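Minimal example, chain plus adenosine monophosphate.
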Amino acid sequence: MTVAPGPTVVLGDRFATELPELAVRWRAEDAPAPRLLVLNDALAGELGLDPAQLRSEDGVRLLVGAAVPEGATPVAQVYAGHQFGGYSPRLGDGRALLLGELTGADGRLLDLHLKGAGRTPLARGGDGLAAVGPMLREYVISEAMHALGIPTTRSLAVVATGRGVRRETVLPGAVLARVASSHLRVGSFQYAAATGDLGLLRRLADHAISRHHPAAAEAEQPYLALYESVLQVQAELVAGWMLVGFVHGVMNTDNVTISGETIDYGPCAFLDVFDPASVYSSIDTAGRYAYGNQPIVAEWNLARLAEALLPLLAEEQEAAVAIATEALNTFRRRYSEAWVAGMRAKLGLPAGLDDTVATALIDDLQALMRENRVDLTTFFRRLGDAARGNAEPARLLVLDLAGFDAWLERWRAAGPDAAVMDRTNPVYIPRNHLVEQALSAATDDDLGPLQSLLEALARPFDERPGLERYAEPAPEAFGSYVTFCGT
Ligand code: AMP
Ligand code: MG
């Protein structure tokens, strides 16, 4: 493995030095024939990286982990996690590496991380690899989420490795380079707590406070304040998902960040028809991570975080449990406030509108959407037309016209603001059929459809002529959609 001069990327090693118990020093497997498939020029710019340098041979070597900038200490991160409710004491990056931390324009640290970079000592039975399709999928969906205003890890690049990856068939391999405000997870705390090393747990909490929730350091009880901050960012995050119809699909505690960013786009999908029972993941047979269950599952995951933090909350276990329970009990209120605020914006409801009136409008609309099986994204966008006086496009989507007309009359009486609605309700989301088309073309070396899709998704609220097909629901022939984990 070489240390190449390459592009000037300065990477810190704060995680590796502050938390060595959670870091296994490791290097990426060599990529036989690296080829850049997609580079996020805008993100590179935000990070102070030169896109032209990243496109160079040395740049591409950096993006697959073959060249490590001087001074960097790549590590596989160790964490635990509850997967579908069952506890795994030692998971960790089986196929990923934290290359190190970039310093963003605001001085905050950002992880530069590779996924699909070869087996690590934490790979268990896995091959450490990733295929082009799923890495491009994470790229597309995470960038779409970002454009929708939902906190998420970002995608910097996908590089084809030239190595075949054995799945059901042999697929072309790839490495995703992603950027996150950190990769600390609920599972990181579970792992640290399980070691019984209170010093480690405290160091991890201090690291999290300093990187993500610095105000907690000033609080009377900083670790309680940390926990409350995570409750808040996760409540806002999951509300954001629910408002756009995002189904994460694998909300295991190792996929729940301390920063409040969406992470690990595996079997995720977007709703078309509004149905709380929607499940896309092939392995989620019980519907644990169904669309409508996500807020409850988030609360369950945050209870696991509370358990891990108990030794930091009070000396006596009983007192710690009481403190943690009281905090956790605020999650439903936090979630509800975030979700109602989002729904008020989606419906363009004026700020002065009475809460009882707003809540009744929101609840009744939810029931109508469910009963009429409307396409969530199209329906809200067309309500914007209705706010401008043209209700026909929305009426075309519902069967119960009498019920809908009655609701429309009440809603219009509240004086909805169409401009707010247009800024809140996207026209373009990564619809499952479009994502699949783009990925299958890319797997066959045609990146055109992917680029066009990325352009539409980069400005989701800005309706543009010529992009009509990106706004349409899946054709009937697309059928029901199934997604896969561990791809
Ligand atoms: P995920 O479903 O992507 O959150 O992954 C769950 C766990 O499985 C993590 O510890 C991953 O590092 C690991 N993992 C997933 N796919 C592979 C693979 N192909 N090789 C090694 N480890 C993997
Ligand atoms: Mg994961």
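The longest strand covers residues 154-166. Residues 186-339 form one domain.
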